[in-house]
Structures are given as C-alpha cells and as structure tokens.
Amino acid sequence: MTNFRSTSAASPEQQVDYLNELFEPLNFQERLEKLYELFQADEILITSSFGTKSVFLLHLLSRINPGQQIHFIDTGYHFPETLRYKQQLAEDFGLEVIDVHPNPERHAETRDQELWNSDPDRCCHINKVEPLNDIKPDYSVWISGLMGYQTDFRSDQRLFEWDGQVLKCHPLIDIDEGEFLYHVSYHDLPQHPLEAEGFGSVGCTHCTERGKGRSGRWQGQEKTECGLHPDYFANKMQS
Fold first, then answer.
1. Which of 28, 44, 111, 158 is in the most buried spot, having the most CB atoms within 10 Å?
2. What are the structural domains of the chain?
3. Which active-site residues does the annotation give?
4. CA-CA distances (angstroms) from residue 127 to 53, 102, 117, 226?
C-alpha cells in the first residue's frame, strides 16, 4: 500500500495545502476522479451512515468506481428504515457494503447502562468511533460525506485534513443545500424513508427525533456530532 505522506518530501501541512489548492477548483465528480488518480481503490476508506444526506456521494461513487467498498458502522441501534434504505441503495447502485460492528461486550455495556441517556459521547465512542479506529490504519485516505452547510462545526472543515496517519477528504464540504437538493432531484435519487416523516437527519433510534436539518439529533443536549470526526471534540473543549 502506498502512503501519500511517505511519497513526498513535503511536510504533512504542505501536502494538505497542496491537495486543497489542487482539488478546490474541481467539481464534486472531478474531485473523486482525481482522488482515484492519486490513490488505489484499496487505499481508500469510504464510510456512509446511509442517512438522509448520504445518497448523493454514494451515487457519485457508483458512477466513478462501482466496485468501491462502502463501510457502514452498524451500531446496533439503527432504525429499521435505515437498514432497509441501505439495502435499497446497495441494490440500486450496485454497492458492496461492508458492515462494521462494535465490540460485542462493549456494545452490551452501552445497552445495559443505557449510555445514550447518561453519557452519549461515550456511547458514540464505543459503538462508532472504536470500530472505525480499528480499520482506519488499513487505509491511506478516508472519504467522508460531510457538507459544510449542515452545522457550524462542519462549515469549518477543509476539503483535505490529516486525521492521525490517515488523510481525510470531504469532497462535498463546500456544497450548499440548494445545490445538493438540485442534484438529488435531477438524478431522481431515492430519499431516506424517514425524511417524509419529518426527520431531517437520522442516526441511532435513541438519539434521533423529528426536526429540520440536524436539529433532531441529541435534542436538549450540547452534543451535535457523534465523534467520528475528532476535531469536533477538540473544538468543543475550547468553546
């Protein structure tokens, strides 16, 4: 496996600056195509929640590299509608979806203690962050579908950043909501079934309510992200 960091004499910061400058003028499809010029498919980790905003990136990937594996972190607390939607998109787009599960004993701890009520950050860490951290070292670049318009935290993210030893790419980070909705409508992409019931964002059953955008996630708490994106907790501690 070729690691982008090891192939360049530039510092990690210089590499990220170079990639951001190279990729920012490109459209979303061109960014993904360019990424596959720089990295082999087996170097690229792609995760999807199969939530309400996942379909556009998955559609793009299915056109550019249909054989690309998509990793889905199965927390054990997903809505049945999300699992059916995952199956639908996998069939419609020809996706190879790999389910990633938390440690069974650790997961049982969150269930028995109902950690989503007492310590939701820890619950997310056990059921989402730890399983992802177990597989990230096997890859050179991680593609995430974050979009800047969704939250203040996401609006501060760059197209490329380092996440430990993994290069993180947000190819849709600068899309605006109108453009996203246009693409979904133009390509007649299937929506998450819970959108029609007023869910703007969908995560685990215990921590998701109806609401516009991400307002229904962790209602009544300061928490706005699951923690998969480490900078979130760094920013939270500084605020």
1. 44
2. 5-197 (3.40.50.620)
3. 226
4. 21, 5, 14, 10
